Amino acid sequence: MAESALLALGIWTWFLVAAVLMILELAAPGAFMFWLGLGAAATGVVSLVFVNLTWQQELLVFAVLALASAAIGRSVMRRVAARSSDSPFLNRRAEAFVGREFVLADPIVHGGGRVRIDDTVWRVTGADAPAGTRVKVTRVDGAALVVVPV
Fold first, then answer.
1. Model pTM?
2. pLDDT tens column, 8-49
3. 89 and 96 Cβ atoms separated by less than 8 Å
4. Is 19 left (phi over 0), alpha (psi -120 to 50) or beta?
5. What fold is seen in the domain 93-149?
6. C-alpha dihedral sign at 48, 50, 51, 54
7. Beta strands, E only, the chain
8. What pLDDT, on a 0 to 100 scale, did the predictor assign at position 96?
């Protein structure tokens, strides 16, 4: 029953599929369904131009155009992600501390201690040093800041 309803729509089936895929992208974002929807819409356009395509040919056109649009989408998304951000350390907060100096909140004993930065206490590693020592962050090792005395 549903199959005959879709066949009755003819060429417009591809535009309906495109709309459904793009709506699914809104419901479950992942930037994947959009590109498939774009391939379906392009297949609809091809079906409008070449009216006598069989359903097998249309399906083949859809497969090719969906893969092409997904590849183009991946390229576009990479370029967008590669652009510099106004918040470069948004998801890498610790890396923003490299090169800065802080005062130890707790002594570094057996290579581990703590430093208070703003309202957060960070774990630090480095040479043993008493509390109150000024240290400089040289790099980040996982969730710990690697420091040297100033």
1. 0.52
2. 667 788 899 999 999 988 887 776 788 899 999 999 999 889
3. yes
4. alpha
5. OB fold (Dihydrolipoamide Acetyltransferase, E2P) (2.40.50)
6. negative
7. 101-109, 112-117, 120-125, 134-141, 144-149
8. 85
